[in-house]
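<purpose> Linking amino acid order to shape
<body> The protein record starts here
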Amino acid sequence: MALAIALLLSGVLLPCWGEFALFKKGSTKANGARCSHHSECFSDCCLINLDSGGAFCAPRARITMTCLPQTRSAINIVCPCRVGLKCIQKDPDCSRRCRLI
């Protein structure tokens, strides 16, 4: 029981839990590094930079931030949500936002 509570608290107290490198094998690039595919990044988001024409690894979207669902394409226009959040659109006039599941 104590172990279950400790694990639950660690998940709440560590908001970037899903973005730590040691939990995601095969990823080698930190946020800010240049990338060509989302699978290269710890965060699993390779964001296009319209100013320079390149792309860089970026953190996943937090709660209430604008988001897009993860696609099969190599580069994201807007990052998908963090683990535990879902990218949904509540109002047809507003963009998609990360919400608690």
Notes: The chain has one domain: 29-100. Residues 3 and 91 are 40 Å apart (CA to CA). The chain has a mean pLDDT of 76. Helices lie at 2-13.
